[in-house]
Design brief:
Layout lengths: L9 E7 L5 E6 L6 E3 L5 E7 L7 H4 L10 H9 L4
Parallel strand pairs: 1-4
Antiparallel strand pairs: 1-2, 3-4
Amino acid sequence: MRHGIHPVSRPVVFRDRASGFRLLTRSTIESSRTVEWEDGATYPVVDVEISSAGHPFWTGTSRAVDTAGRLERFERRYGSRH
C-alpha cells in the first residue's frame, strides 16, 4: 500500500445537540473544539443535529426540526397542524 495518501484516523467525540448523547469513535474529521471524556483524556468534538438517541425512528416519538423558519411559513400558508 502507498504511504502518505490516506487520511489519518483519530478518536473523535460526536455529540447530539438535541439529546446530549455522546459517542467516542474513530474518524478522519477535524475539529478545533475539544471535550473531556470519562477517561480524563481530551478529544476533538463534532456536534450533530440528530443521532440514533434522538431520531424518531429509533425513539418512537415524532419531532419537528425547524430550519430557517420553514415550519412557520408552512403553517402560515396552509394553516396550523393542530
